[in-house]
Design goal:
The chain is mostly beta strands. It is about 10% helix and about 40% strand. The protein is elongated, with a radius of gyration of 19 Å.
């Protein structure tokens, strides 16, 4: 069986940045499970997965455009502390959900200067070339329920 749309794929992976630093890995955990063709993973990796078989081991190098996007300076802004009503302690690294015209976005506090707070809506991995070291562990047909919910249920997936 090969990886094609509507197949559930379980994979082991290690994600590194351009310096070779490990950003994320399934090592020591369950393999990551996703449904091919449903944007469960970044586009560049999903494209590389297509056509692979169980046991295939490969490296996928994903450019920012096919990963977490280019850095968008418009998503970096300085706001007044009073924007955070009801939040007593604001610290660098805190994340908040903000509603924008095209949907929700996670904003991260990156700098605090008195009452001026800098927030950044760019993904932490924006602008980065990512290398995925992948091993395909299992491929199966997705159930109708998984396709309806657009994510994997059971091992390595979403648990209810």
């Amino acid at each position: 069986m090969t990886i094609e749309n509507d197949k559930v794929v379980l994979m082991d992976y290690t994600l590194t940045n351009e310096n070779g630093d490990i950003i994320d890995t399934s090592d020591g955990r369950e393999p990551l499970a996703y449904i091919q063709g449903h944007q469960n993973i970044i586009p560049g990796l999903e494209q590389e997965m297509a056509g692979k078989k169980v046991g295939d081991k490969f490296k996928a190098v994903v450019q920012p455009e096919d990963g977490y996007g280019k850095f968008n300076p418009a998503l970096l802004q300085e706001v007044d502390r009073n924007v955070f009503k009801g939040v007593d302690e604001i610290e660098v690294g805190m994340q908040f959900k903000a509603e924008l015209e095209n949907g929700p976005i996670i904003m991260t506090v990156t700098k605090i200067d008195g009452d001026k707070i800098t927030i950044d809506g760019n993904h932490a991995l924006a602008d980065q070339v990512l290398t995925f070291d992948v091993e395909v562990k299992e491929i199966r047909n997705a159930t109708s329920e998984e396709l309806e919910h657009k994510h994997v249920h059971g091992a390595g997936g979403h648990h209810h």
